[in-house]
Amino acid sequence: xxxxxxxxxxxxxxxxxxxxxxxxxxxxxxxxxxxxxxxxxxxxxxxxxxxxxxxxxxxxxxxxxxxxxxxxxxxxxxxxxxxxxxxxxxxxxxxxxxxxxxxxxxxxxxxxxxxxxxxxxxxxxxxxxxxxxxxxxxxxxxxxxxxxxxxxxxxxxxxxxxxxxxxxxxxxxxxxxxxxxxxxxxxxxxxxxxxxxxxxxxxxxxxxxxxxxxxxxxxxxxxxxxxxxxxxxxxxxxxxxxxxxxxxxxxxxxxxxxxxxxxxxxxxxxxxxxxxxxxxxxxxxxxxxxxxxxxxxxxxxxxxxxxxxxxxxxxxxxxxxxx
Length: 323
Known about the structure:
This protein is α/β, with parallel strands linked by helices. The chain contains 13 helices and six strands.
């Protein structure tokens, strides 16, 4: 018989809700290794705009899933699931508690629920299609993805291009493959969903954007472009980076930049919350039929208070799952 999948805490929530600080504080209760499930933090040299953990946090709490590829490379949910399964096993062998932390829902779902079994794709046609999609403006690419898959929920050029590729080369939309051809994940998730009232989250987003710009986010992007990274590189397709690139290209004024990033980040946070509400409530439970494996937690309190509550609840959940 195959060994049972391990039960793993998964800390989710919208950007700027405070996931990193809470995860770092959990390490005060038990030896923790964080597995980052963030599609932007995988990129090297993209530090400020992706809100990677500070050097102080990284010195205290090991993190996996950071700085994996260069900004010009693509890194998929499938690659993440493959890598994270290995990290998960290594962390457990070391006698530490793995905690998955992130706001990229597709990464979390790939690890918890498995990926779809994709049929072989003709590489020649795939390359031709890649050249075509790279020449499309972002709005047109998203429109094509939406036409080919009515369940396409947006999320940037890389996700839109993937949706177009799968639909055209397999004859079925990506959402169908994700629903009908899914394999078993490598862990059972216990979700801690951090939430904030909208006004409080918006204040945190505005403050984070201010800190990023003060820390040199524009210089970070300018240096990447000067080193040869293309303006349309996958790593620069994220919220915040797109707006800085637009400003450096003269499409946005310096005065308009902060608010443009704030607005884009708010929209991204809203998409994250919508995804989490729908996906975490609609999937079968890893612990019980009552969806007790999803704990919605008010994040207005300090990371220390939240971490204390999470650890106490985790001990009970783990005992029930092992019992």
